[in-house]
Amino acid sequence: MKKKPTAFSTVFNKVPHFASNWCQLQNRASNFPNGKANLLFSPLLLPLHLDPKQTTPRRAALQQQEADRVTNLPGQPPAKFRHYAGYVKLRPQESKALFYWFFEAQDGASRKPLVLWLNGGPGCSSVAYGAAKSLVLSLFVAMTFGLLLTKSLGTKAPVGVGFSYTNNSKDLHELGDEITASDSYDFLTNWFKRFPNFKTRDFYIAGESYAGHYVPQLAQLIYDKNKASSPDSYINFKGFMIGNAAINEPTDTLGLFDYAWSHAIISDQLYNQINKECDFKQSTGNLTVRCADHLRGFMDAYANIDMYSIYTPVCTKSLGTRTYPKLTGFWHKLPSGYDPCTEEYVEKYFNRKDVQSALHANLTNLPYPYTTCSVEIKGWNDSPDSVLPVIQKLLDAGLRIWIYSGDTDGRVPVTSTRYSIKKMGLRVKEEWRAWFHKSQVGGWVEVYEGGLTFATVRGAGHQVPVFAPRQSVNLFTHFLAANTLPSSRF
């Protein structure tokens, strides 16, 4: 059953972090643990040859690949791996096109799995958050796996998100979880036509924040369509991984306040008043006046720190111009990100004409600038309270599912995720214990009957790869290899 978002709907708008020194990040990535031998990478690049004997459709696909290849990203030294960017039209009869950025595995690309990364929002860019902000992880993944980043749907109108577009302004008023899953599935099927050499690869989806909705919903659509698919349309889907994810609104909301109180951000008095006046167990849509007043006090408590990473500094350069959030229809522009001053650098970089040209982006000259998250989207037509039934269905289907949580995030805190998982009533298979990254505790992990793994990442905020890149790589490689996280120092 569809449910329209409420006044307390979980909407996540964050600023990205862009690393201008691409070469330095590649060197950092080379120091990450490689795990199993099939995760090793080297500077070897396999050139793409166009065989004149190949059939016309495949040859056309390879030609389009070459047209999408990024060969010179302004301001950055040459990459040691192939990457591609461009547009994929969703359906012939429509005018929607999604922008993507694909990083190919550096060594043995034909044997490595493919990962689709999605970001939340709704209305935030996976390129900004997956590539620019989490570039350390992206570079490592690019050298060991195939990483595919897509962006949220925008429109060629006064309102839009990133470089993706539609020429029909009506599409903007039909945005929601359901259409996002449908568009993402059509994007994938058409992307595989352009990159048929990746069609049979083990395929995974990963994401964070409101992608706690996007990822399971897309996973369910792929699973359902695979049942009746032909060999040409079958997607070799194996599982997904979501981090600091919105998955069950009532418990997500309860955990939000419990976390703030337990970390000494709000007072006993405010905490008790919220619990007394706000009945989030029943509904987050019909808030009383007193409850709304207490929620404003809650937001005021976070006004001078970063809600997404409670122990890291905020940007002092923009304090004079920053407008802190008030409780209106959506929770837009909450305090955000590690070193949030870099948001302006990301937007300035991706608005450069030479950068757009290198990425084959903004070919239609969109009438609005590139932004990391859209501030123009005012409505979201469907957003169910919970995706726990979807997660349970896919666990029962035998898919690999990991949920992780950076433990210094105040927006979708570890407390919320633990409450949400508890709601599923799963039996514990491997009890709560520490997992290690080299000689230090990387976080804690618990494994449940049926295949669900829940892991925390110690000291990481909302976007875990930014704050704990090495632990993130360790976590990610163990997920893809279906290996248990290390239980001892090494």
Automatic annotation (TrEMBL):
PROSITE patterns per UniProt: CARBOXYPEPT_SER_HIS, CARBOXYPEPT_SER_SER
EC number: 3.4.16.-
Recorded family membership: Belongs to the peptidase S10 family.
Any one of the GO BP annotations: proteolysis
Main subcellular localisation: secreted
Segments forming a coiled coil: none
Keywords on record: Carboxypeptidase, Disulfide bond, Glycoprotein, Hydrolase, Protease, Secreted, Signal
UniProt organism field: Hibiscus syriacus
InterPro entries attached to this UniProt entry: AB_hydrolase_fold, Peptidase_S10, Ser_caboxypep_his_AS, Ser_caboxypep_ser_AS
Location within or outside the cell: Secreted
GO MF annotation: an example: serine-type carboxypeptidase activity
Name the UniProt record assigns to this protein: Carboxypeptidase
A Pfam family this chain is assigned to: Peptidase_S10
GO annotations of cellular component type: extracellular region; vacuole
